[in-house]
Amino acid sequence: IAALDRKRFLLGMALLGILLIVVGVLYLAGRRQIHLEQEHARIKGLSDSVLQSMAEAVIVLDDSSRVLLYNEACRDLCGASRTDVEGCLLREINPALADLLAGQGGGWTNLAEVELKRPDRGVTAPLLMSTAPLRVEDHLYTTVILSDLTDRRRAEEMALLSQKYKTM
After folding, report:
1. 69, 59 Cβ separation under 8 angstroms
2. C-alpha–C-alpha distance, residues 78 and 99, integer Å
3. Is the dihedral of CA 97, 102, 107, 112 positive or negative?
4. Is 78 in contact with 56 (CB distance < 8 Å)?
5. Per-position DSSP letters for 34-66, written without gaps between them
6. 70-119: pLDDT as tens digits
7. Partners of residue 116 on adjacent β-strands
8. How far apart are CA 138 and CA 96, in angstroms?
9. Quick one: which of 68, 67, 135, 61 has its CA closest to 104?
10. Separation in Å, CA 105 to CA 99, 101, 129, 134, 140
11. Is residue 92 within 8 Å of residue 103, measured between CB atoms?
């Protein structure tokens, strides 16, 4: 009986040891997961801050022209009345911009000067539009960056006017 008790004791200790190892591994994996989630949240927060603080308007669209990312500069430039535009079709937010992008005919334009009517103000703004494809796994996205050229055009007009006055 003593040998049988000793075998049961050793078997119990072995199972307890294995159980402690499994619990330790799960604990370390959980801590690693928590660390990765915290790092992901930190990086996402930083990238969101950078995106929102950019002077250029940035939009990322999926293959059906649904808005995935949309920064504050784009909201101001495109005159979006809604505060939450992610997931909406670009045509619902700004039909003129959707027409400009559709007018590219499926090809990729790296850089183009365009005129965009601002629906909230009823004025047309000169823009420098950059579009680029972005392929992630099997999905194709479009990144659109819009730079307002209004101030630049005014400065050019002022320089031209100044030159005319100097010539006179």
Report:
1. yes
2. 13
3. negative
4. no
5. HHHHHHHHHHHHHHHHHHHH-SSEEEEE-TT-B
6. 888 888 777 765 567 788 888 888 888 888 887 765 556 677 788 887 76
7. 125
8. 29
9. 61
10. 10, 8, 15, 17, 16
11. no
